[in-house]
Amino acid sequence: MDIYLFEGGEYCSECVEPIKKRLELDGDKPSNPDDERSYDSCQWPKGPDDSDYHESDTPCHCENCGVFLGNQLTDEGVNYVLEILAIDGYLPQEWVDGLGVYDDRIAEAKGKVF
Length: 114
Prior knowledge:
Blueprint: E1 2-6, E2 9-11, H1 13-25, E3 46-50, E4 55-56, E5 72-73, H2 75-88, H3 93-99, H4 104-107
Parallel strand pairs: 4-5
Antiparallel strand pairs: 1-2, 1-3
């Protein structure tokens, strides 16, 4: 899934489109949105960033709708997810489906989901 960055948050493609339309109506669209070096992500959404290359220390969810963005995890991120599993005894199914392909320890959690 594509990830867009805006004002410190991460968004899915469906939720970023209304943001772009609002900014454009307000006259805040950069002169060249394809040149992400020419503006800050507080001014206009940056992306898409393919979730296969977007590493984070935690599973990322859209700031607006909450959908899991399917990002890869750093080693700290894998440890975070395994800590959640150890504490709660289960993981969200979307985490197991999306993150299990990156780490066998998470894939083993398939029977421990909610």
